[in-house]
Structure formats: structure tokens, C-alpha cells
Amino acid sequence: MIDSKHLYKFAEFTLNPAKRKLFYKDSEVVLGDKDFDVLLHLIENRPQIQSPDEIIETVWNGTNVENNAVEKAISSIRNVLKDDFRNPRFVKTVRGKGYLFIDDVNKVALNNLSENGSQVTKDIYKKSREKKFQKYVVRGSILALVFIVLFGLIYYLSSSFNYNVESEKVKKAVKDSQLVKFDFYKNPKSFSREKANRYFLPIERGGKAILKLENKTNKLIGKKWKYASDTNLERFDILSIKMQGNVAEVATEESWYSPVLYENNNPVPEKEKRTQWKAVYMVRKVEGEWLVEDYSTPY
Q1: Least buried of 36, 99, 136, 260, by fewest C-beta within 10 Å?
Q2: pLDDT for the residue numbered 30
């Protein structure tokens, strides 16, 4: 009589007598009907040796079969189980006596079938779910890592792009402020805070550069000096830019052609017309515009 309430587990195999199924891990293994019955007979009668006659009596109900029918069944079983007859793990041939199932077997109560309706039992299905869950965890972790790397790369590229864009605006703001500064020097009486506010941080916002410009233009007016109209910025090199939020510190090296003439138009020596110096500018971003807040230059 077939045991319909239990499973037999050995190694990584599960034998389900009720469903007449053999599983290797989570996958069904194809085994012929008589081969299945022979394997089940050996398992249920372990550890006794089963002679060919006993096997034929049980499996074939004593009917006439080929002399090597049992031998063929054993060979098929070994083939499915990947068992080596020279060094058997499951089915051992006892010369002159018969066959013996030698591996450890656990008899497990058969509970409900798996939820997906397959012929895998509940414990096998649980292992399958655990493996699937592990796969999902691994895949999810990989996807999360890829997302983090991509997000970091995008953020880095975006930050680098924004930094480059803003640094170019800072450079332009500093250079433009120096050009307009010398426009005021060439015509000191044209200076006004309203004009200067387009390039320099207004005084009411803490700008110090405008006060320096105002003092310089007043001195030029008082001394009746004037700069020649051909005053020009010949070289303007950025040595470094340090940016933090809406504030930047810019170090430059500049070369100016600026011939200063007195009121009587007495020219200065040629060697004094070209001046070169290093300067530091503090620049602040206000309402989207970079304005020079302060500077430190010889002029």
C-alpha cells in the first residue's frame, strides 16, 4: 500500500509516493513507473537487502518478466541519481543477495501542497521562495548600487558643470569691473555710485570697492591728473578661484598699459606706462549677478 501521508528525503532528493514524483532540489526528475516503484521499495525496506525475487514479487506482482528487469531498473535509478555502482552513495549491490539502499533517509509528514499548485511540497516551496527572495535582494542591491553610482556621477557632472559656468561668470565680473574702473580713472568726473553698482556690490549691501573707487577718483580730480584714452588691460590671468556658495575669492595677475598725464600734458616716461601686479578680489552673488565686493590692488 502506497504511503500517501509522507515524503522521503535523502541527500538533495525528495520522493513523493502519493504523487509518484521525484524531485532534485526544486526540480522534478523523470523516472519510469517501475523504476520509481523499485526505488520506493528499496527505501521503504531499508536496511534489509532486497533480492531480485522480492523486488519482482512486490513491483511486478510476481508476473513473468525478463530476467534482467530488476537489473535494468537499478541501472536507470543509478543514472537518475548520478550514482556510481563502483562507489555507490545510494544503491549498493550485494553480490549473490540483491540490492540495498544505503543513504540516510528522512521520513517527513506530507502537509499541504505549495500555493502555486505545483507538485512541490510545502517545505520545498519554502526553500524555493527563500532562494527567490535572495535573488530579488541581490538584484535589488545591485540596482540600488547602480542607481547610487549613476546619481553620484550625474551629481558630480552637474556640480562640475555648474561650477565651471559660475566660475566663468566670476572671471567676467572681475575683468569687467576692472575695465570700468579704468574708465572712471580716465574720466574721474564721470564716476557715480549708480553706474558703479552695475559692477560692484552697493555700499548699502556692504560693498567696499565702491568707496575705494570714489576715493581714487576724488584724488585724481583733486590732483588734476588724468589717464590717457589709450589705457588698456593687456593681460589678465586668473591664478586661482575659491568659491563657496555665493561668495568667491579670485587671485589675478594683471598687466596694464596706463600712461598717466598731468594737466599740462607732460608725458610720463615710457617705462612707467606699463604696470604689472597681482590682485585679490572678493566677489559676491546678489540676485543672480556676481558683483565685486572688495579688492586689493596697488591702484
Answers
A1: 136
A2: 92
